[in-house]
Structures are given as C-alpha cells and as structure tokens.
C-alpha cells in the first residue's frame, strides 16, 4: 500500500522536477574532492573519507519541492469547505508554533485566541498575524480546553510544545476528547501511542512534518524492506545540525538510521554527531548565519569495508515553512477523518501524503 502511494506521488512530481534534478546531479558530480578528516561524535571520534568542508552544497530539494507543491495546495484550499477549521496552537510562544499560526492563517484556518505553555509563560499575550493569543499554564488547562472545545466543536489542537510535556498533553487531549496534530518530538513514544489508542481520539502524530522529507524516509523504508542486508559491512557516519534550541536528537535521523540498520549497517544511536553550536554549524557544515536560528541539515555517509566505495545522503532545510505547511495539510486531513468518522484513529504523515 505504501509503495503504491509513493508511485502516485512520484508520477505527480516527475514531470515538473526531472529536469531540475538532472541539473542538480550534474552540478554535484564536480564536488567529490575528499580527504581524511575526523568525524566528530559525542561518544568517540571516527575516521572516514568525507569532503574537505561539509558545505551541504545543493539547493535543498525538499525546500524546492515544498514551494511549488504548496502553491498548488493553497489554490485547492481556497475552494475547500474546510477552510474555517478552528485550531488551537499549543506552544505558540515558540518559533515553530508561530510559523504554524502564520501558515494556518494563510490557509484560511481560524486560530482560537487561547494556547497552553509552561507555567512561567502563563498570562502572556502573543500576537501573530494580528491575532492576540492568551497563554495559559498547566494548572487550569483541562477546564480551559473543555470550554474551548465546547465553543468550537470542530476544534483541532496542534502541539508544538517540548518533549517533557507531550505525554501529559496527549492524556489531556484524550480525556477531553479533542483531536490533535502532534509535531513535538521526544517523550515516551510507546506511552504516547498507548494513550491515544485507549482514548480513541483522532490524531496525526509525526516527529517530521515536512512532507518531502517524509517521502524520502518512506523511500528508505521501502529500500530496507526490499533489500535487507544490501549494505552489510558498511560503516556509517551521521551528522545532524539544528538550531541550538532543539534539545533532543533528530527523530528523522533516528528513523533513517533504523533503515540503514535493516540494510545491514552496524550503528549505535549515540554515535550521531549533534551540532548545536553556531560556530561549528557555520564552519563545519556551512549553515548560513541568517538560518542559525532555524534549520535542519542532515548528512549520512556510508563507506565500504575496503574504503573503495562511499555513498552520501543528505537533506537540508532552511527555516520552518516546510514543517508549517505540512502541519496545515495534516490539520485538513485530520478534519476530514473526524468528519467522516473513520474507523482508523491514529495517523502519520505517510497517511497525509
């Protein structure tokens, strides 16, 4: 089923992007000068053949696709009967929360003037897109959410809070019975899914909301399923760079590493090199200074046992628009599932695709 979905997606974008991909591949063929360079790790230093300076050279493909595809989707939304869907953005004080509000407002969704956040932020008023949103702390959130849900029975909650709160938040959403989109990473994921299953609320849960990145991950999963052990014996080096405020290891990196493990690669998650220092991000991977506060650069470098063959996979994202637009698509998708009273209750971004 997943394979057929990806075939449909591939057919839709192939015509528009085959020439662009060809030119990008041609450009990348000229940048393979390498030398021995330490590949840092939190646990140990690994030696490997990597580019002299890891500059993440190509224009981010995921971002390029997002721009054009998003335009088409906005045109479709303008004729949709779902454009007045009310949403409650929890975590609206954060940059991701604000980006989602901006994308939702552009799509014609209604952002209710209430949000949840940490106790220290309770009582604050956040203004985004000309809308004033009152922030409430944990102490009175159940009564507040129940009141908002009663006023807006078609409400969908969007959660971009922090890893430490997602399990309690999910329990609250389940208790009140409100559907939600969870983009927050970390937390106890097994407990999260168990909570949602038991509450029987509708939810889209995904640590990665960028649709094009999700499509890449899905392709990796298909390869791992169809060609297990294909990279047996290969060594793997992983670097992921995110803004300093991202405290946890990238969930996307972990998912892709899991695919490589199924392909026969031996790799421990604690070998992931997490870059959070702005100076290193500029000097080591070439993150533009203006995007230090919001980016996602990932590099996966595979080397054969005899060092004669190497593969590199990378995906680079500037800013947060790709995730915000994907979140809006998840909201629209979930609203339709709730309205149709679908039997399935828990979805991910593959379902949204």
UniProtKB/TrEMBL annotation:
Catalytic reactions of this protein: (S)-2,3,4,5-tetrahydrodipicolinate + NAD(+) + H2O = (2S,4S)-4-hydroxy-2,3,4,5-tetrahydrodipicolinate + NADH + H(+); (S)-2,3,4,5-tetrahydrodipicolinate + NADP(+) + H2O = (2S,4S)-4-hydroxy-2,3,4,5-tetrahydrodipicolinate + NADPH + H(+)
Keyword field contains NADP: yes
Source superkingdom: Eukaryota
InterPro entries: DapB_C, DapB_N, DHDPR_bac, Dihydrodipicolinate_Rdtase_pln, NAD(P)-bd_dom_sf
Limits of the Dihydrodipicolinate reductase N-terminal domain: 86-209
Keyword NAD among record annotations: yes
Domain Dihydrodipicolinate reductase C-terminal: 213-353
NCBIfam families (alphabetical): dapB_plant
Protein name: 4-hydroxy-tetrahydrodipicolinate reductase
